[in-house]
Structures are given as structure tokens and as C-alpha cells.
């Protein structure tokens, strides 16, 4: 009786090159995905930073308008040359909410 082979299949060079192609493609896809996630995270941090600057500008602009209005409303002008309320506070309720929130 003659035996036909041992049951093992031979690997040819195309299956090895297919594995290399899949590994390289997976690595490139992983790098692209990581880069996209990093860019998205960076853009999100920049958007939050811009939002903080916009809020700070808004508060400063309103404080300037408040001060200009208090100067315009003061009559007669104080002899000390200092224009402020007695306790030196701003009566802008949204600023208190922003500072506490």
C-alpha cells in the first residue's frame, strides 16, 4: 500500500505576500485612525479655548460699557477723580453666574 502525502499543505509565496500586505495595510490604517483622533482632540481643545476667550472678551466689553455709563451718569463729578460705586462691584448678574458656573 502506498501512502499519499502526510496531509500537510505546502505554503506558497502568494500566501506570505498576502499576509504582509494585510499587516502593512492594517498598520497604515491604524496610523491614519490615530492621527485623525489626535487632530479631532486638538481641534476640540482649540474650540474650548476660543470659547473661553470669547466669554472673557464679552465680560470685559460689558464691564467697559458699565463703567462708561456710570461715568456718564455721575453728576456732579466726584472731587476725588475716582468713578466707582460705593462698594466697587459690578451689577451684572450673568457675570456672577459665569464665575460660579
TrEMBL record:
Organism (species): Limisphaera ngatamarikiensis
Entry keywords, A to Z: Membrane, Transmembrane, Transmembrane helix
Domain of life, source organism: Bacteria
Name of this chain's protein: Type 4 fimbrial biogenesis protein PilX N-terminal domain-containing protein
Transmembrane portions of the chain: 20-40
Keyword Transmembrane helix carried by entry: yes
Amino acid at each position: 500500500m502506498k501512502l499519499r502525502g502526510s496531509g500537510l499543505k505546502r505554503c506558497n509565496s502568494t500566501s506570505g505576500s498576502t499576509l504582509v500586505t494585510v499587516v502593512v495595510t492594517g498598520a497604515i490604517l491604524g496610523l491614519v485612525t490615530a492621527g485623525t483622533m489626535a487632530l479631532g482632540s486638538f481641534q476640540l481643545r482649540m474650540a474650548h479655548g476660543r470659547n473661553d476667550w470669547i466669554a472673557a472678551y464679552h465680560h470685559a466689553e460689558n464691564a467697559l460699557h458699565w463703567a462708561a455709563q456710570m461715568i456718564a451718569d455721575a453728576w456732579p463729578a466726584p472731587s476725588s477723580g475716582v468713578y466707582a460705586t460705593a462698594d466697587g462691584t459690578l451689577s451684572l448678574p450673568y457675570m456672577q453666574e459665569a464665575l460660579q458656573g
